[in-house]
Structure formats: C-alpha cells, structure tokens
Amino acid sequence: MGKNTWLSIFLLMMVLLMTDFRAGAQSTFQRTYGTKGNDYPVAFIQTSDKGFALIGWTNNYSEMYLVRTDSLGNKIWSKGYVLGTFNNLAMDIKETQDDGFIICTQTQVLKIDSLGGVQWNREYFPYKNYAPYFYKVINASGGYVLAGGGSQFGMSLVKIDYSGNMIWTRTNGNFYWEQNSNDLIQLSYDSCFYAINGYGPYKITKFDKNGNGIWTKYIKIKGDSNPDYSVGAGYFSQIMANPDGKTISASIKEETTDEWFTFDTSGTITKSWEYTWRGSQKIYWTFYTNGSLHDIVSASDFDTALVENGPNAIGIGIERHDASGKVKWYNLFVGPKTQYPAMIRQTSDGGIAILGLTDNYGAGGDDFFLAKIDSSGSGTCHDTIVKGFYINSIPVVIDTSLTPFNYLPFPTTVTLTDTTLAVTDSSYDACKCHIPVAAFAYDSLFGQIYDSSLWGEKWYWSFGDGTYDSTGIATSHNYSGHGPYNLCLTVTNGCGSDSVCKVVYYKTEPIGINTLTDGNSVNISPNPSSGNFHITSSYTFSEIEVADVTGRIIISQQVSSKQLGINLSSLEPGIYFIRMLSTKGAVVKRVVKI
Question: Which of 197-206 are b and which e, b meaning 16 or more Cβ less than 10 Å from the residue's Cβ?
C-alpha cells in the first residue's frame, strides 16, 4: 500500500473522529433578551428543532412576552401580547403537534402558531363566575389539560380540545388555603394525572384520564409547627415521573430547604428526605440528570458575598449532587447586579439550560437570561470560587391523610380577542465584552440614586460636593444643602469606560420629621385601580408626591387633609409609589395602575 493511500486513510480517520466529537459536543452559550424596560421571565421549553421558547411579562406586567431562539440562543423572533386583564401573567408553555405553542396565563389560554400569531384565545369559568388562576398546561390525548385553582374552589383541572373547547372540568378543595395546583404530570404507566399544589396545606391529587378523582392526600412534614398539615407558600413545588415509569417524586421548596418524597400510584410514600443548601436563599427548580434518582441538578439564588471577590448582589447557582447531598460540582452566574433563576431543564444533548432574570448585560432594567452549560457544569463565562458550599441530605418523616373529593360543575367558555404587538427588544451575548453605557436617575426628595448603566463592572461617583465613591453601585447620598450639585458617574469594564453628569438638587426633609412607623394608618383604595385612588388616614398630610419605579417624581402637590383623591388615569399602566408627608412623619405606599 502506497504512502498516498496511508495518508488518505489517516486523513479520513481524523475527519471521522472530529465529526463524531463535534456531533457529541454539548453547545454552551449565555444570552439576554429584553426591552429597555423591565422584563420578567417565567418558563421555557426546548423545542423539537433543539431551539428554545421563553415566556414571561414585559411593560410593567401589562404584556406577555414570547421569545423564540435557535439551538445556540440566537433570537429568531419575539412578540408581545396585550391580554387586556391585569392578572393575565404568563405562567407556562408547551410545544404543540403543529410546531406552535399552547400557553396558559393566569386566567387565559392561547394557541400560538409557529411564527407567534394567535390562533385562538379562551377564558374558562369552571365555577359560576369564577375563573381559576392557571399555573400549568400539558399535552394530553385529544387536547390539553390545564392545572390551577382559585379561592372559591381550590385545586382545578380543565381539559380542552385542540380548538380550545372545554371537555371537562374538575375541582378539589373549596377553601382559600387550597387555591392552586402548581404542577401536573400524566403518568404513561396508568394514564392518570397527578397534581401538587404550591400554596397552603400541601397535597397530592390523583385523577384518572377522564378527570375523575381517585384520591387526594395531604402532606405533613414531621416537625412542622402546624399540627394538621404543612402550610406555606411553596410556589416552586414540583412533581415528576421517576425513571421506572411507575413511581413519582415530588418536592416542596421553602427558603433554604427542599423536601422530597417518592410515592407509588396508590399514594403510599416509599421514601422521603430533605436537602439543606448552604448559601442559597431559595431552591427554584430541580431535575434528575439522565433519568437517575441519584444524579440531581438544581437551580437556586445565591448570596454572592460567598463568592471570592463577589459583588453585593444575588447570583444564579447551579449544582449537581447525588441523593445523599454530596456535591459533584457547583457553578455560578454572577455579575455586579442581581440575577435570579426562573427554571432549569436538561437539554436533548445532555446539557443544562437555565432561564433567569438579570440586571447585567442586557438592554436595560430586568431582562431574560438564557444560559446553556454542559453536563460537567462548564460554560459559564467567568470562573468563580464558592466559600464553604455544601448540601445536607437528611431523612424526614412525611405523613399523609386522605380527603374526599368535591366537584363543582358549572362550565362556561368565553372567546377572547387579544392584540399581538411587535416589541422593540434586543438580544446580547452575555459572554462578550461590551463597551459600558453610564446612566442613572436621581430622586431629589428621597436622595436616592437609581443606576441604570449597562455592562458595567466598576462604578466611580463624583457627588459634586467634594466627596467621591468608588466602592460600587451607589444607592443614595446625603447632601448638606439644596444645591445645585454636579453629580457624575463613570462606569468601566475590560472594554472601556463611559461617563455621564447631571445637575441635581437635594430637597431636604423638614426638621423633626421621621418616617411613620404606623404604615397601616394609611389606606389606599381601590388598589389596583384604573386611575382613581382614594387615600384615607388618621394623620393630616401636608404634601403628596407620586414617583414611578425609577424614582422620577411625576406629581407633587401641597395638601392639608386626612382624605385625598389622586388621579393617575393619564399615566401608563404599571407600579407607582405615593409618598405622603405629615407632621408625624412620612409614609410611602405602592399602587398599581391597570
């Protein structure tokens, strides 16, 4: 065999090896998506083409925000949806058979085509005039099943067909503390639905494939202070099928603990244990890696003061551990400002995708953050060192008690028409260095500084009164007089710097005025309101001001009354702050204009 033949074989083998390596490699990226306002991520899925679909809210909760990306996180398209009701916050999304999406908001369900167009939208009233808040939607035979609840009827399931027509509805529990179903699965082994609530007395409920109730069991964790059942606000409760396909695991996540238990289809608990995280404040989402009960990946928020040279903020922590709590690896997504996790999923190539909220590296304000790392935890942009991180796993005793079913069959369906908007948003590669943009707002009444800089790593402040600060993101500064002062900010990172200055005035408080400690003495109603708010108090106010979420003063009035009316009808829907001043002190109340 000649030299050229051997050379050809060698080159062919190298090409094949490189092809196999690349085909098996797990891609990694970090990207942000959002408008110049605040955007709040809630849920995401990996689509059949290995891309991603992300949902949440934008424009001060008034619009649903949907982003579609390819497998590397590059944005394909994004849409905004005006749903017309204050409580219509996006909650869950699933891909449909036609490559579109089924999305549940708190009170509506939308069918979206593959390009973001609305095909239909429905609102459901299973009980007289009360609509449940939906938290979860799943694909089911012949359509979709929605899980939610409400204060009038407790946990609720609604089955609809592919056109949005209601097939059946079921409720279980009829008092306020049993008001939602937080997660739902259908087990292929018996075709039954299993739901867990995320608020109030925790319980697991089993329905057959036609929605008929089989059993409901309350969950009691040994050592809980409540003698009857465990009460809390575990909005991150989960339920999932185990690798054997015949048993189920569920978790209740509260603060720094994560209670896990497995049970069979009869509701008998076979194992229960508790994880305690060091350094994290709340566990958000968990999955079994490659379907193994002994290989677990979780997302949590994390106090970045535990990171070497870390900023004073909250970061996203991702950890992989076994069932005993032994940590295999831990990685962080940190920046100079805050980041929070929303959801975590295993991807089709065995990697890990994380959806979160970030104040770093986006278009401004809070933005969607989507990151993909490989199964070893690699793929974050910067190495981080965690001080003393660990997870404890201890056995716990969980008791169950059976409760009867309650059905309230009053189905009504309303067809809705919503508006689809083109949104002005941006997507950024969070791992690339961007030249910073310095920006801030100053509130002359409170003396508060609201930083809105982009891509900064270090902040340098010159307050214009001979004082300086280079310790970080300033939040306030007390001036000795009214001013004017030339307040300047310089923001830097590895790519460059940017500066901005503003002439500011400081409006000092009258001598002897302190913040009111009795905030309950002031009542504002209705709240939320379409614009007219009525204020009553036991104190006589002399001044009233209204500020937006950036601290910008919109309204300032001199008054002298215990009862005030204020009209915000001309303002955009959103959150505002009303500050009232009296001889007894000052009080600030938050209002929502819808």
Answer: bbbbbbbbbb
* CA atoms of 183 and 155, how far apart (whole Å): 11
Q: Structural domain boundaries of the chain?
A: 440-504, 519-593
3-state helix, strand, coil in the chain (%, to 5): 5, 50, 40
8 A C-beta contact, residue 170 and residue 143: no
Read off the tokens for 526. Answer: 């209705």
Cα→Cα distances 320→286, 296, 351, 378, Å: 10, 6, 12, 12
Of 3.40.50.2300, 2.60.40.3080, 3.40.1000.10, 2.40.110.10, which CATH number belongs to 519-593?
Answer: 2.60.40.3080
Which two tokens mark 213?
């109730």
Buried b (16+ CB within 10 A) or exposed e, 354-391: bbbbbbbbbbbbbbbbbbbbbbebebbbeebebeebeb
- Is 440-504 a CATH 3.10.105.10 domain? no
| Per-residue model confidence as pLDDT tens for the chain (594 residues) | 555 555 554 444 444 444 433 345 788 999 999 988 889 999 999 999 999 999 998 876 678 899 999 999 999 999 998 876 555 688 899 999 999 999 998 878 999 999 999 999 888 765 555 666 788 999 999 999 998 876 556 678 889 999 999 888 887 765 444 556 678 999 999 999 998 876 666 788 888 998 888 888 877 766 554 434 444 444 467 888 888 889 998 887 766 677 788 899 998 888 888 777 665 556 666 777 656 666 777 777 766 655 555 556 678 888 888 777 777 888 888 777 888 888 888 899 989 999 998 888 888 788 999 999 998 888 877 656 666 666 777 776 666 655 545 444 444 556 665 667 777 888 888 888 889 999 888 876 667 788 888 888 889 999 999 998 877 776 678 788 777 889 999 999 888 999 999 888 775 543 223 344 444 578 888 887 878 888 888 878 888 888 776 566 788 888 888 888 888 888 877 778 888 877 666 777 878 887
* Residue 156 near residue 166 (C-beta atoms within 8 A): no
Torsion angle in degrees (nearest 10) through CA of 375, 136, 65, 232: -90
Asked if the domains at 440-504 and 519-593 fall in one CATH topology, the answer is yes
- Planar angle of CA 15, 17, 21, nearest 5 degrees: 115
Token code pair at residue 181: 């179903």
> Which H helix or E strand runs over 16?
helix 3-24
**N-terminal to C-terminal alpha carbon distance within the chain:** 81
DSSP for 244-300, written as a single string: TSS-EEEEEEETTEEEEEEE-TT--EEEEEEEEESSEEEEEEEEEGGG-TT-EEEEE
In angstroms, the CA 337 to CA 202 distance is 35
One DSSP character per residue, 366-430 reads: SEEEEEEE-TTS---SS---BSS--EEEEE--EEEEE----------EEE---EEE----EEEET
Burial of 174 (0-12, 13-18, 19+ CB in 10 A): middle
Which residues fall within 8 angstroms of residue 25, CB to CB, at 6 or more apart?
none
